[in-house]
Amino acid sequence: MDTSTLPKLHENAKDFMPINGTDYLELYVSNSKQAAHFYKTAFGFQSLAYAGLETGLKDRESYVVGQDKIRLVLTSPLKSGTEIGKHIDNHGDGVKVVALWVDDATYAYNTAMEKGAKSYMEPRTDEDTDGAVVRSGIHTYGETVHIFVERKDYNGTFLPGYRKWETPDYNPTSTGLKFVDHMVGNVGWNRMNEWVDFYSDVLGFTQILSFDDKDISTDFTALMSKVMSNGNGRIKFPINEPAEGKKKSQVEEYLDFYEGEGIQHIAVATDDIIQTVRDLKSRGIEFLKVPDTYYDVVLDRVGKIDEDLAPLKELGILVDRDDEGYLLQIFTRPVEPRPTMFFEIIQRKGAQSFGKGNFKALFEAIEREQELRGTLH
Ligand code: FE2
C-alpha cells in the first residue's frame, strides 16, 4: 500500500463540499433602485439584471449589479407585510443571502442536510430560454442563508426570471474590484465555536486562524475571532463574537443595531489598492481613519513591501503580514444608517490568511467611531 497517498485521500474525504466561489450576495434594502444607483456610482458596479413588476413579480423588485466576478442583488418589497419587509424592519439594510457556486446544488443540499443543516429551500430548477439553474438553500447564523447555485446549464445574464438590465446612458467605470475575498459574520456571546463547528461539520470547512481576546483588544473592549475556509480557499468566513471588556465592544454594537447575528463586512479584492481607494474616495466612499502613528512602526512590524509608504499613509491603507506574504486593506464606514455592515478593500501580496496587527488597528478605528456615536459605554 502506498501510504504517500493517505494525506491527499484524507483531504479529499474532508472536502466533501466542493465550492467554486461566491456566486452572488443578496441584500434586502429599503430602496433597491437607489441602492443600485449607489453601488454603480460610488463603487463602480455595472447594471446587470432586473426582476420586478415588469417581469411578472408582484411583491418585490431586484436590481443586480456586477463588477468583474462580484454580483450584488439588491431587493426591496413592493408592499407591506412581506418577509423581506420584516427583515428590513428588524435589521435595516443587510445581507440576506450568501450564494455559493457549486457544480451540483442537489448534492450540496442533501449532503448539508444529512450533516445537520436547517433547510431554507429544497432543490428547485428554474428555466428560461437561456437554460436551467438549480438552486437550494440552508440557514446559517441569524436570518442569513446560504443558497447553492448550479449554473452549468445556463447561459443567461444572471438567473431565470431576471431580464437583462441595461443603462446605456449611465455606466460608471470600474473601480478595480475583482471578487469577494471573504465575508465576516458577527455572532452572539459564546456562539463562535457553535458556528465554527457548523461550517466544519456541515460544509467541510477548516479553521485556518484563531484570534483570542488578548490578540484583539483595546484598553476598553475585546472580541474573539476564528477564520473558517473551504477546501480550495476561495470561501473564507471569519466569525467574531464579543469578549468581556470595560465597555461595549463593536460586535455588541453590531448585534444591538442589527438586532441579531449577521454579516459584518464584505471584503472585496483589488490588484491595485492605492488606485482603487483613490477612485472610491473621489466618488464619495468614506473610510475609517488610522492615526498617523500607525505608519511610524508599520514597516518594523511587516518588513519590506513593494509600495511607498506615503500614499498608504495618505489614504489610511493598513498593512499586515502572515507566514506567506503580506496584505493591504482598508475598511469603509457603514454603508447604511445603522452602524452595521461595511466593506473592506483588500489586496493580497502572497498572504493567504490574515495578520493580527490590523485587527487591532481596525478595532481601535471602529472604537473611535463608536465614541462619536455615543455607543461606547
Ligand atoms: Fe476582513
Primary descriptors:
eight-stranded mixed β-sheet, 2,3-Dihydroxybiphenyl 1,2-Dioxygenase, domain 1, binds fe (ii) ion, globular, 2 domains, nine-stranded mixed β-sheet, 33% strand, 377 residues, disordered N terminus, alpha+beta
Can you identify the CATH class of the largest domain? Alpha Beta
Order of helices and strands: HEHEEEHEHEEEEEHEEEHEHHHEEEH
So how many helices? Answer: 10
CATH topology of the largest domain, by name, is: 2,3-Dihydroxybiphenyl 1,2-Dioxygenase, domain 1
**Total domains:** 2
* % residues in beta strands: 25-35%
Give the CATH architecture of the largest domain: Roll
Tell me roughly what share of residues is in helical segments: 25-40%
Overall residue-averaged pLDDT value: 92
What does it look like?
The chain has 377 residues and is α+β, with helices and mostly antiparallel strands. The chain has two domains: 11-164, Roll (2,3-Dihydroxybiphenyl 1,2-Dioxygenase, domain 1), CATH 3.10.180.10; 177-373, 2,3-Dihydroxybiphenyl 1,2-Dioxygenase, domain 1. 28% of the residues lie in helices and 33% in strands. The chain has a nine-stranded mixed sheet with strand order 6-7-8-5-1-4-3-2-9. Strands 11-12-13-10-14-17-16-15 form an eight-stranded mixed sheet, with helices on both faces. The longest helix has 17 residues, at 357-373. Residues 1-10 have low confidence and may be disordered. The structure holds fe (ii) ion. Fe (ii) ion is lined by residues 182, 184, 265, 267, 344.
